[in-house]
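Lab manual, section 2.4: Encoding a predicted structure.

Procedure: take the sequence of the chain (45 residues), apply the prediction step described in section 2.3, and record the output as structure tokens. A sample record is shown.
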Amino acid sequence: MRVVPEVRKLDEEWVSLLKEAKAMGMDVEEVREYIQNFSERKRVL
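Recorded output:
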């Protein structure tokens, strides 16, 4: 019996946003920090 790996579909909007961030020169860690800071600010409001 052959096991078929699960295929995950990527969210196209997230892919687009990450591509834009990369084009602006942001690395993965900077994107992560930006999202973290946004989440923290949202909780304060």
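Check your result against the sample. The CA atoms of residues 24 and 35 lie 16 Å apart.
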